[in-house]
């Protein structure tokens, strides 16, 4: 019963979001952004509904979602840690930092810690090149990071 109610809520809320955007030029991205803002990810039911309403194939909608790395098909953890993988950060120790973070959290890219608190995402440039290596925790930028600084960030949100 709870799954049916959740599915109905997704369908109803997604329909309302589509109603707002479907008459705009290029409505797919605004719809996906609003659906993800509403649910924290883009549920499969919503993806199918979006494709149907916009007269797109499921593959077209999925292709757009997979092209833009910020879209998720599963809920993220309570906090999202995005670690820069671009050249400036790599040249100043970003690769080792990324390895340390994955080891310390016990997860790989696009995974969430078993307690559901932190999701780890790679990003390609946070615009903090002069303060490399950099990361973003829940939308807040942090630069000149080392393993201890990142662990402190993670501990603060846990």
Automatic annotation (TrEMBL):
Coiled coil region boundaries: none
Source domain of life: Bacteria
Cofactor mode of binding and number, as noted: Binds 1 [2Fe-2S] cluster.
Keyword annotations from UniProtKB, A to Z: 2Fe-2S, Iron, Iron-sulfur, Metal-binding
A Pfam family it matches: 2Fe-2S_thioredx
Cofactor(s) of this protein: [2Fe-2S] cluster
Family statement drawn from the similarity comment of this UniProt entry: Belongs to the complex I 24 kDa subunit family.
Protein name as it appears in the record: Formate dehydrogenase gamma subunit
Species per Swiss-Prot/TrEMBL record: Pseudovibrio denitrificans
Highest classification ranks of the organism: Bacteria, Pseudomonadati, Pseudomonadota, Alphaproteobacteria, Hyphomicrobiales
């Amino acid at each position: 019963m709870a799954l049916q109610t959740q599915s109905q809520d997704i369908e109803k809320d997604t329909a309302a979001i589509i109603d707002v955007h479907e008459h705009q030029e290029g409505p797919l991205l605004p719809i996906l952004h609003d659906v993800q803002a509403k649910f924290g990810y883009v549920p499969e039911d919503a993806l199918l509904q979006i494709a149907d309403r916009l007269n797109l194939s499921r593959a077209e909608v999925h292709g757009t979602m997979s092209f833009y790395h910020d879209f998720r098909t599963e809920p993220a953890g309570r906090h999202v840690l995005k670690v820069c993988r671009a050249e400036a950060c790599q040249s100043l120790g970003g690769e080792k930092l990324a390895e340390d973070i994955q080891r310390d959290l016990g997860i790989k890219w696009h995974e969430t810690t078993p307690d559901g608190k932190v999701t780890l995402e790679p990003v390609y440039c946070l615009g903090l090149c002069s303060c490399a290596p950099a990361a973003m925790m829940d939308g807040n930028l942090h630069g000149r990071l080392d393993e201890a600084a990142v662990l402190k960030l993670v501990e603060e949100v846990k």
